[in-house]
C-alpha cells in the first residue's frame, strides 16, 4: 500500500490482515533493510494478527528524496508516527531491527501509549562507534552486481556473519536487499545517501539513549543479539539485563549485525513473545 508523508513524499508499507480484536504487530527494519525482511514473520502470524511492515523514506518501495537531509533520524521517526496514525495503528507490538529498535525507543518517549510490547533486534542504548562506521560504509556502497550469484558472493564476504543462512537463505537475503535497475544490474533497495544522514557524520553524535531505553520500562521487552555484533557489545547487553532483569534475551553465537530473525532460536522466542501479547 502507498501513503503520503506530510511533505508529499510517497511512502510504502506491506500489510497482512488479521483479527481486529488483537494488538497488531508493527515491523520496522534496519537502515539498510526493508519491509520485505518481515515476510516470514508475517507468514507465521498473519492468521492471528494484523501485521504492518513499513518502508522508510528512501527504502524499498518508498520514494527517494531529492534532498538527502530528508533522511535525518527525526524525519524518519516522524514518518513512522504519521503512518501509524494513517493506518489506525494506535497501539502495537513493535519488532524493530537496528534503527527500527531506535525508533521504538524514541516512540517510548514521544508516544508511550502507542506501544504494547517491544522486541529489539541487535540494538540497545549504546551504539559502538566501530559498528556505526561499518554500517555507514555498507549502506553507502552500490556494487551494481551483474547477477544474483555475484550479489550472494559479495554479501558472504562483506556482510557481517550470518552463519545459519544456507545457499537458499543467502539468495533470498540478496533478493530482499537488491533489485534490477534500468541498466539491468542489481542495486540496493535503499538510497545509498541514507547512511550519512541517518547514522553517519551528518546525523551528529548520538544522544544519551539510556533514558530512551528507560522509557520501555513498563513494557514487555525482548532482545535478539548477535554475539559477533559490532554495533551492540556484550557490555551493553549486560547493562541492559541489569536495568531490565525481566527482559528476554536470545543470544546467537557467531552472528553479526543484524540477525535475520529467521534463525530458529530467534524465531521461536519472538513467536512466543508476540503470542503472549493480547
TrEMBL record:
InterPro entries: AB_hydrolase_1, AB_hydrolase_fold, AB_hydrolase_sf. Residues 25-269 form the AB hydrolase-1 domain. Keywords: Hydrolase. Gene3D superfamilies: alpha/beta hydrolase (3.40.50.1820). Signal peptide: none annotated. GO terms for molecular function: hydrolase activity. This is Alpha/beta hydrolase. It comes from Roseomonas nitratireducens.
Amino acid at each position: 500500500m502507498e501513503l503520503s508523508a506530510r511533505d508529499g513524499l510517497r511512502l510504502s508499507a506491506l500489510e497482512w490482515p488479521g483479527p481486529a480484536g488483537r494488538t497488531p504487530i508493527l515491523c520496522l527494519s534496519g537502515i539498510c533493510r526493508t519491509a520485505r525482511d518481515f515476510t516470514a514473520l508475517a507468514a507465521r502470524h498473519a492468521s492471528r494478527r494484523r501485521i504492518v511492515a513499513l518502508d522508510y523514506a528512501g527504502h524499498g518501495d518508498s520514494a527517494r528524496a531529492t534532498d538527502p537531509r530528508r533522511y535525518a533520524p527525526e524525519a524518519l521517526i516522524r514518518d513512522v508516527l504519521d503512518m501509524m496514525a494513517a493506518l489506525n495503528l494506535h497501539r502495537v507490538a513493535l519488532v524493530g531491527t537496528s534503527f527500527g529498535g531506535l525508533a521504538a525507543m524514541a516512540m517510548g518517549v514521544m508516544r508511550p501509549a502507542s506501544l504494547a510490547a517491544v522486541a529489539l533486534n541487535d540494538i540497545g542504548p549504546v551504539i559502538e562507534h566501530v559498528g556505526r562506521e561499518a554500517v555507514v560504509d555498507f549502506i553507502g556502497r552500490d556494487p551494481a552486481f551483474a547477477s544474483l550469484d555475484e550479489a550472494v558472493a559479495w554479501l558472504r564476504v562483506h556482510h557481517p556473519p550470518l552463519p545459519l543462512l544456507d545457499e537458499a537463505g543467502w539468495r533470498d537475503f540478496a533478493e530482499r536487499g537488491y533489485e534490477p535497475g534500468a541498466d539491468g544490474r542489481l542495486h540496493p533497495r535503499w538510497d545509498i545517501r541514507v547512511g550519512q544522514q541517518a547514522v553517519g557524520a551528518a546525523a551528529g553524535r548520538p544522544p544519551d539513549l539510556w533514558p530512551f531505553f528507560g522509557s520501555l520500562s513498563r513494557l514487555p521487552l525482548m532482545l535478539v543479539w548477535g554475539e559477533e555484533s559490532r554495533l551492540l557489545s556484550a557490555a551493553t547487553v549486560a547493562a541492559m539485563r541489569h536495568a531490565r532483569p525481566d527482559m528476554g534475551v536470545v543470544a546467537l553465537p557467531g552472528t553479526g549485525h543484524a540477525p535475520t530473525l529467521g534463525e530458529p532460536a530467534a524465531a521461536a522466542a519472538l513467536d512466543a513473545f508476540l503470542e503472549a501479547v493480547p
